[in-house]
Amino acid sequence: MQIVQLSFADDLLLFSRGDTISVRLMFDIFQEFSLASGLVANADKSSIYFGGAPTSIQNEILHDLGFSQGYLPFRYLGVPLSTKRVSILQYQPLIDKIMSRIQRWTFRFLSYAGRTQLIKSVLFSIQVIWSQVFVLPKKVVKCIATLCRTFLWTRGVDASRKALIAWEHLCSPKIVGDLNILNIQAWNKAAISKLLWNLSTKKDRLWVKWIHMYYGKQGTIWGVIPTQASWTVKKIMQMHKVFETIGWNEEYVKHIGKFSIKQLYKAIRGEYQKVEWRRFTCNNIACPKWIFILYLALHSRLLTRDRLATWGCVEDIQCVLCRNEDENHNHLFFRCLFSSQVWQKIPRWQNINRKAKGWEEETSWANTYCKGKQAKAEVYRITLAASVYLIWQERNQRIFQKTAKTPAMLAK
User: Which InterPro entries match (predicted)?
Assistant: First the structure.
């Protein structure tokens, strides 16, 4: 009898036919292994799962081995194992784990940039294993995106304010000036598509042999959707549409030597039109929280008074820095008398002497000046991010803390 095992660390799954002889033989061999290695199964933590075995056989096996009977679905390596489509309820541990992490960070005074980094590095790493095993339902994907979006803009799990920028834009690549946060649905498609690639190329794998034996009777599994197959197998088989959408046919996929989920993910996302000002945020080594405020300003998404007035939040839209004109992005950066004085002082350190103008004119000029990798371009990008951040910070301190600094103090 061939004994099939799947193991990870101290977790072990053993498979055999559902008859007493096969199970006894498997258990005898395992006991020999235990005597040789000293590794013994913990009866309190071990279970036996049956599939299609008669009740009499089940009772006999349970009596012989002394283990308890387990029932599907159960969790292995953090994910549920089931013979059926995984229900929305069974994804709750994934959602709970993400929510738990967010709640730990709620009371920390994290900047937008800090929260963005946690979303990219921690929260999305939690769902990576699930994305490579299951086709995540749209409802689950939406729930995860909502939790991450709410955490970014409100620092918690309860939506209490509007998102400054739509989540779809935040997931766009850096070449269009966005944050390149992972698009879970597209990543999930790329990850599951790798399973179809395995079916097409890794024919020495046990599960691949099984699929080909039962569903590959036509000589190929490409484009074949067996009606009797499980929901998961059908979803894997349907991934040929993902490949074909980006122009990868069966022959091309078969000749991919080393499959890259990241490469397919980029192909699924498609081409994007570059924006000139991307270099202000992509190639900027300034403080991350400065860059994030600059990013919002470049999208005209800072909560300036003209925007707040359209939502009925404020009535007075006069600029708090100069008290001469209405506050909007173009005025605040850098037509405002106060901010223009700050802005004119800082570039002088780089021997740049030019009169401060409005936001659109300044960014247009900076696009030309910051081309290339020269030190002057790098310093100017840092200067622009720092100036926007400090002016925005001064504006907020005057409103909420009733404190004020002079342009010279701010530029120092």
Answer: RT_dom, RVT-Znf
Q: Distance of CA 261 to CAs 59, 118, 145, 189, Å?
A: 45, 22, 20, 9
Tokens of 321: 């820095």
Query: CB of 74 within 8 A of CB of 49?
Result: yes
Nearest residue to 268 via CA among 174, 194, 190: 190
Cα–Cα distance measured from residue 349 to residue 368, given in angstroms and rounded to the nearest whole number: 19
Q: Which residues pair with 79 in a beta bridge?
A: 76
- What is the distance between the alpha carbons of residues 381 and 386, in angstroms, rounded to a whole number? 9
82 assigned to some structural domain: no
Question: Does 182 or 9 have the greater pLDDT score?
Answer: 182
Sign for the CA dihedral angle at 143, 107, 385, 119 comes to negative
25 and 64 both lie in a single domain: yes
What's the rounded mean pLDDT across residues 339-352?
83
Q: Is 162 helix (H, G, I), strand (E, B) or coil?
A: coil
What does the block give as tokens for 142?
Answer: 């939406």
Tens-digit pLDDT profile for residues 195-253: 999 988 877 788 888 888 888 776 778 888 888 888 888 899 999 999 999 999 989 99
- Whole-number Å distance between alpha carbons of 370 and 84: 56
Check: pTM over 0.70? Answer yes or no. yes
- Counting other chains too, the contacts that 38-46 makes at CB distance below 8 Å and 24 or more residues apart are 43/67
Residues 241 and 325 placed together within one structural domain of the fold: no
Instruction: Read off the tokens for 267.
Output: 């192909």
Q: Tens of pLDDT along 132-183?
A: 888 999 999 999 999 999 999 998 888 767 889 999 999 999 999 999 999 9
Helices (H), 69-137: 92-105, 112-118, 124-126, 128-133
C-alpha distances out from residue 370 to 365, 377, 382, Å = 9, 4, 11
For residue 73, whether the previous peptide bond is cis, meaning omega lies within 30 degrees of 0, is yes
Write down the pLDDT at residue 2: 54
DSSP SS3 for 318: strand
Does residue 353 sit in the same domain as residue 385? Answer: yes
Is residue 320 a contact partner of residue 398, using CB atoms and an 8 Å limit?
A: yes
Asked whether the bond before 107 is cis by omega within 30 degrees of 0, the reply is: no
Compute the distance between CA of residue 358 and CA of residue 370 in angstroms, rounded to an integer: 18
Instruction: Return the H-helix or E-strand segment holding 36.
Output: helix 20-37
Give a yes or no: residue 242 inside a domain.
yes
Tokens at residue 145, please?
Answer: 């995106």
Domain range for 20: 4-71
Whether residue 402 sits in one domain with residue 308: yes
